[in-house]
Amino acid sequence: MVIGLIIAIIISGIVFLLCSRLKAVCTVTLNQEEQILYIAVYFYRIRLFYRSVDLMEEPAEEQSFQETLSLLHQLGHGARQKWNHLRTIILFVLKHIRVDNVSWTTEAGTGKADTTGTITGGIWAIKGMVMGPIMTNGTFVHKPSVTVTPFFQQQTFSSVFHCMISIRAGQAMYVFWRVIRKFPVKREAMT
């Protein structure tokens, strides 16, 4: 009788943990002063993981036009296959997560009205290409907030992307297992 009660409590605890939600918060800030990525993962408001990554790169040394073209050719080799592989993973993951909040605010200006208008249109096009598949395949709790604010009289650029997603712990393990099983990591031979 006691052993059955202990087993029932253990099974109930496992089911409770598997049905609990994990929340991930991601914020990307890009402007003239800083370029930072913040990621945090919470379980019942307890922070399990936090990372802040500075996206600023060291200034690259000057390259010739020919070196730049060869670098682009190397990066582009197999890019379509890599993109299709990444797209399949993203769409599979989007089916299993819930997007609680998305906010993407961009402020841009070149100091001239005509070029600011062109830049603003390009930013809207990029945001549409990024948010379109996410809106189509994701499950949203709240409507996303996507804005572009043009500054016609000053030169500025600032963009802040904030996203909060949640997934049940059991689903997270299942998605991780399926992604690893379906898309194995290719290991290169060490020589």
UniProtKB/TrEMBL annotation:
Cross-referenced Pfam families: DUF2953 (PF11167)
Please name the InterPro entries in this protein's record. Answer: DUF2953
Q: Which domain of life is it from?
A: Bacteria
Query: What is the name of the protein in this document?
Result: DUF2953 domain-containing protein
